[in-house]
Model the fold of this input.
Amino acid sequence: MKIVILSRNRSLYSTRRLVEAAEALGHEALVIDHLRCYMNIASHNPQVHYKGKALEQVDAVIPRIGASVTFYGTAVVRQFEMMGVLTLNESVAISRSRDKLRSLQLLARKGIGLPVTGFAHSPDDTEDLINLASGAPLVLKLLEGTQGRGVVLAETRQAAESVIDAFRGLKVHFLAQEFIKEAQGADIRCFVVGDKVVATMMRRAKEGEFRSNLHRGGRAELVKITPEERSTAVRAANIMGLNVAGVDILRSHHGPVVMEVNSSPGLEGIETATGKDVAKLIIEFTQKMFEEKGASPKKNQTRGKG
Ligand code: ADP
Done:
């Protein structure tokens, strides 16, 4: 197969590993910077151009689109869908997962466990919003944040009011969320490929920190998940329409709660923590999807429609 990996940088761990795994399985892997792709969207013969020529005979695309370039990155993925190329994660699913509010609403709709969450733009009813998120302590999150940035633990009502006041001044969208204290600063990353959780790790926050992001000094440990956690992760990925996803779960008194579903989950942390060849599993899954859908014109569910 000729597999295009959409990535801004070929030396990133995840990109390198996907190339290695694809080549080891006998495929041709092409790393393409999506920001350098351009296309004629009005054409009857949709194409993606890169470095002066059209990309041809691509069998599958593995999108690795960073949060800061979701808009253009998903447009490139959509163009491949219009060309009838198989995309491992479809553009609509990526856009969906990048919108925290939309994701939480979709997950809630299907009965996935979530922390009690309120959302607001610039509310005057701070008090009621705090009550809605089960009172203090509570977590306040900027909608646009990633890697734990813009996630604040307000220990008291007063602290929460000050933070909400600051967010209101900035005119930003934010979430007010029940603080899952019993998770003790640890979350579980479930790496989903297809309808399976193929690898899991627990990320534990460093001393004095409640955010477990590895970028914030969290440590990764091995963890065995329960059948309930496993099915929650697979269902969450499925509801978002993602074939490959990193589903972050907290262990709460009311069962597993999903915090986020990531459409370009990093491979370095999970492969290092578990010793598993996740890249290989992703390529094998892509190959399986291609074989199943290869002859069909419906290689993507949306075919650029969404
Ligand atoms: P980001 O998308 O920026 O990583 P998250 O919503 O995943 O933001 O939050 C970052 C980290 O903060 C999580 O990995 C988790 O450890 C912690 N955290 C977030 N929300 C809660 C919560 N409601 N209760 C307890 N811990 C939380």
